[in-house]
Design brief:
Oligomer: heterodimer
Shape of chain B: globular
Order of helices and strands of chain A: HHHEEHEEEEEEEEEEEHHEEHHH
Strand content of chain A: 15-25%
Radius of gyration of chain A: 30 Å
Strand content of chain B: under 5%
Radius of gyration of chain B: 24 Å
Number of strands of chain A: 15
Distance between the termini of chain B: 30 Å
Helix content of chain B: 55-70%
Largest sheet of chain A: 5 strands, mixed
Largest interface: A-B, 94 and 109 residues
Structural class of chain A: alpha+beta
Largest sheet of chain B: none
Distance between the termini of chain A: 90 Å
């Protein structure tokens, strides 16, 4: 075999410098071009945080794009330029290394990651800091649905409502604890900073709104928080990002095809969505006041009350069950359409009420054939997870019994 | 010094006999048999894990859950896919390379503790069986990371078997690593100092240090998990005073270093293949060797970047800083390999194109890794397909491409026959295209809003998922080309001879396959394992050829008449 006769030529060094400078310019321009494509593959910029995170990403993509072009460029150039010719048995030049070069390619990446660290740090400080006048909302994750709890003091009673109009029991509740609403969706308005305080009934979940670029895990036994400020009105899907079991993928906002009262096909938002109203007035008019009135003046009829409780998303039923009356389209558990007919036929000797009562309190003992043990056990003790007071359960049963086929 | 001179009991019987497949089923203390046992077992599980991946991609062709019976069945698929690929494919496969090659590269007759070596291997098959038995008792469904309380209060009995299986695999890793450390420390031949070792040995040394220090933490976490599941303790149950973050911290304290357990030996393979197949000394030997140790060290301080969305907010920034730092030694390696290629004589062998494929894809995984290290961006893409993409770019585009390069490079040494180069190139082309279009679009689908570990997803992501699935099927098919190539070449491949790649490291300084005690007489290492392009190297290889006879001309060139005189240094 022959040894290399390659001697680095020095005569063409001025040419080489021109080429290196040209390649450097191409790499820098290329990186910037790659970074400018960023909006093409990002979700809507829905929050002030999203603007900062996206700018940070564009910067990282530009740097990353340059490194990518440099490495792939040298690689492709080497493959084309230094490929052994057929029959060439010689070796390359015995170059063992170059201390200056190695120093340079240690220092430059070190500086780059330093810059990225400082930049990321400042974005992080800005985005997760506490803002003035935050709207605080409680979020509860459960297998496999989200519930958002709004608590407001008596100063926010809907227009024309005074405390003395309320039933005495509700009056006391409101006076002690404020107005408490539950809803499957998170409502707010543009430029209103939101702080979500989160707990879980069972396993870990993660609260993620891609449009807001915020995410935070819900940890069993802890309360965690996430903050964002929406800047664009609209609807944003809320997603569970931490594996929580069989319905993990379904624990996100869904779009369900259904029909309105006139029978026209419409698309309805089901499950967890962030609804950003254009302003506070719209928020009050379209969300808060009707919901608050429903809570402050609950229907007398237990069936209507049960319907209202289920529709509020206080209990995580909608992700798993089908129930046309409420627009539920879950597929993890048995259908509830016509449950009022079937309930009394399930267990011989058990009335429909008893069956429904027991199968909500002890679901594992009442599994419908073909379905796994996924339903939470709804307890009657406030200290237990998935607490469901007796009054709620009775109202829910009364409502479910009205669900008859045909 | 090759100090083991007394023939080893298990090896005597094999002396002078032709290798039979049935030997793989027997207890053997010969490191070469054990190495092959590791590789064949691991490859079997690669097929198992790959089949699970194909089912995952089949399910994800549509947004609804329609292939698998229910969400639980789907969750079991990716839980076992991840566990198998990490613990039963990449780690044991690279341990197989280490077992086969380390004694040969050091000119030793075997590993320092041959019996322990065999024991470490034989822990793996029962562990694999335990894991698979889970499918009959309600398989684990909590992902390969198995976060409590999902893994303690909900997942099926398979989760208990999962933990027991990982216990066995962890023990196997620790025993193997102790063996590697002792072997590398004590059994180097006369004339081979630390900095004359092949870089693969440095990589295995760094890996083994990580294994010995980190794997006990996995064992600790698994023990707590097992006790919570079967003995009624509440280490992870907050209702009784436990803490779910305890698992995350201890698990990642092992599992982040485990990322380097999976990539450092592949880096070692790459250093060998790139230098040999581009006929040029490795550029910056010491930097590559020491950066492995730097990665091993810093790798212990970054674990909580896997917990950026669960960790206390105040602790996120410190872990961002350490995670960013670790990009630097990794960058040094990539640039050193480029420096090696630049100006060399690049031979387009199958081993080399896989190594080049590694370089071209690993850099993408490295860039997305730095992006993930940045807390504010990570918050958005944490637990999404962006992470799935990143980890496959480093573990498939990195480790698995490295393993493929190693297979094409060392198959002639292991079997005495060459793999078919044409099939090798087909294998590469399909794998490379399939790989890129499987994993690159996952970055985008993750950024757009698709979380990982979901069997049903928002309909707007379907078109990207269809592309991903089709590409993944192509990648799945491409693996069978390698299997076919191995089967055909074992019977009818070209005879390789001792040193088909004209390499200077010691494993080529003996016949292929090597005799039972590896070398006849004490081999003399060349002073620089990558000293290509020098007169001394030419003389060394020439003397070797005189001794072992000519090898096949595997670098794809017609063998010219022996050159009269070398041109000089």
């Amino acid at each position: 075999m022959n040894l290399s006769q390659n001697v680095p030529s020095t005569g063409r060094s001025s040419n080489a410098i021109i080429w290196i400078v040209a390649a450097g310019i191409a790499i820098v321009v290329g990186g910037i071009v790659i970074a400018s494509l960023q909006p093409l593959f990002f979700p809507t910029v829905g929050s002030a945080e999203a603007e900062q995170v996206d700018a940070l990403f564009r910067f990282m993509l530009a740097i990353g794009g340059m490194i990518f072009l440099l490495v792939e460029g040298v690689l492709v150039y080497s493959i084309l330029r230094f490929r052994a010719k057929p029959g060439d048995m010689s070796d390359g030049p015995p170059i063992q290394g170059n201390t200056t070069l190695e120093f340079v390619w240690t220092i430059i990446p070190a500086v780059i990651v330093l810059v990225l660290t400082v930049y990321s740090w400042s974005v992080w400080t800005n985005t997760h800091s506490i803002k003035p006048n935050e709207q605080t909302v409680g979020a509860v994750g459960a297998r496999f649905a989200w519930t958002f709890n709004y608590v407001v003091d008596t100063a926010s009673l809907p227009d024309g409502v005074t405390l003395d109009q309320l039933e005495p029991a509700i009056q006391d509740d409101v006076r002690d604890d404020g107005i408490q609403l539950s809803h499957p969706q998170l409502h707010t308005w543009v430029n209103q900073p939101v702080a979500v305080s989160m707990t879980t009934q069972d396993v870990n979940h993660a609260f993620w709104i891609p449009g807001m670029r915020v995410k935070q895990d819900l940890l069993a036994g802890r309360t965690t928080e996430v903050r964002f400020t929406p800047i664009e009105a609209g609807t944003y899907r809320i997603v569970c990002a931490e594996l929580c079991g069989a319905g993990h993928g379904a624990m996100a906002g869904q779009i369900v095809n259904t029909r309105d009262e006139a029978g026209n096909p419409v698309q309805e938002l089901q499950g967890a969505w962030l609804i950003v109203h254009p302003d506070e007035d719209t928020y009050m008019r379209e969300f808060f006041e009707p919901e608050a009135r429903a809570v402050l003046f609950p229907p007398e009829d237990p069936a209507l009350l049960g319907r209202q409780i289920l529709a509020s998303g206080r209990y995580p039923c909608a992700t798993c069950h089908v129930l046309e009356d409420l627009g539920w389209a879950g597929n993890l558990g048995p259908s509830l359409n016509g449950i009022g007919d079937r309930a009394e036929t399930r267990v011989p000797g058990q009335s429909a009420e008893e069956y429904l009562y027991e199968s909500i309190r002890l679901p594992y003992d009442y599994l419908v054939p073909g379905y796994g043990p996924l339903m939470p056990q709804f307890n009657d003790e406030p200290t237990e997870p998935n607490y469901m007071p007796e009054e709620d359960l009775n109202a829910i049963i009364a409502y479910l019994l009205t669900q008859r086929a045909g | 010094m090759a100090s083991v001179t007394v023939p080893l009991p298990g090896a005597i019987a094999a002396e002078g006999r032709k290798f039979k497949v049935s030997e793989l089923l027997r207890w053997s203390v010969d490191h070469k048999i054990i190495g092959i046992q590791y590789m064949v077992t691991a490859f079997f599980f690669f097929i198992v894990g790959g089949a699970l991946a194909m089912m995952i991609r089949w399910e994800l062709l549509t947004p609804a859950l329609d292939v698998m019976a229910d969400g639980t069945a789907y969750n079991q698929l990716f839980s076992i896919h991840g566990t198998v690929m990490i613990f039963l494919w990449i780690i044991p496969m690279l341990a197989g390379f280490g077992n086969y090659l380390i004694p040969l590269m050091l000119g030793a007759k075997d590993m320092a503790f041959p019996w322990l070596n065999a024991f470490a291997f034989w822990l793996i098959p029962p562990a694999g069986v335990l894991l698979m038995l889970g499918f009959f008792v309600g398989q684990a469904e909590a992902g390969w990371t198995s976060y409590p309380p999902l893994s303690t209060l909900f997942s099926g009995d398979g989760q208990t078997l999962w933990a027991m299986s990982l216990h066995l695999l962890g023990l196997s890793s620790i025993l193997g690593a102790i063996n590697f450390i002792v072997t590398i420390k004590n059994m180097r031949p006369e004339g081979m100092g630390w900095f004359q070792m092949p870089l693969f040995c440095w990589a295995v040394l760094a890996t083994s240090i990580i294994v010995v220090l980190a794997t006990p933490f996995l064992a600790g976490a698994l023990t707590l998990l097992l006790l919570d599941r079967v003995a009624g303790t509440a280490f992870f149950n907050p209702a009784q005073g436990g803490d779910v973050l305890l698992w995350q911290n201890v698990f990642w304290f092992y599992s982040h270093p485990a990322v380097y357990i999976m990539i450092l030996p592949a880096f070692g393979v790459l250093s060998e293949v790139i230098s040999i197949h581009s006929r040029k000394p490795i550029f910056g030997y010491r930097a590559i060797a020491l950066s492995s140790l730097a990665i091993a060290l810093v790798g212990f301080t970054v674990w909580a970047h896997h917990m950026f969305t669960s960790l206390t907010p105040e602790l996120r920034i410190p872990f961002m800083i350490t995670s960013m730092i670790i990009a630097v030694p990794t960058g040094i390696k990539v640039f050193s390999w480029l420096g090696t290629l630049f100006g060399g004589k690049i031979h387009f062998t199958s081993a080399m194109i896989f190594a080049l494929g590694f370089l071209s894809m690993f850099v993408i995984g490295g860039i997305s890794g730095v992006m993930l290290g940045s807390v504010p961006f990570d918050i958005h893409v944490h637990d999404t397909y962006f992470v799935v993409s990143h980890l496959h770019f480093v573990l498939y585009g990195g480790s698995v491409f490295g393993i493929f390069a190693g297979i094409y490079h060392w198959f002639p040494k292991i079997t005495g026959r060459m793999l078919n180069e044409r099939l090798g190139k087909w294998h590469f082309a399909l794998t490379y295209v399939g790989f890129f279009f499987t994993f690159f679009p996952q970055h985008i689908v993750g950024i757009l809003g698709m979380p990982r570990r979901v069997g049903e997803y928002a309909p707007e992501f379907q078109s990207l998922n269809v592309i991903i699935s089709i590409a993944s099927f192509l990648m799945g098919i491409s693996t069978f080309i390698l299997i076919y190539n191995v089967i055909v070449s074992l019977r009818a491949g070209k005879q390789a001879g001792a040193n088909p790649w004209r390499a200077l490291t010691l494993e080529w300084q003996t016949s292929s396959p090597p005799p039972a005690h590896n070398f006849t007489g004490d081999p003399v290492p060349f002073k620089n394992p990558y000293g290509y392009g020098t007169r001394a190297a030419w003389d060394y290889l020439h003397a070797q050829e005189n001794r072992f006879g000519p090898s096949v001309d595997a670098l794809g060139v017609e063998k010219p008449a022996p050159a009269p005189t070398p041109a000089g240094d």
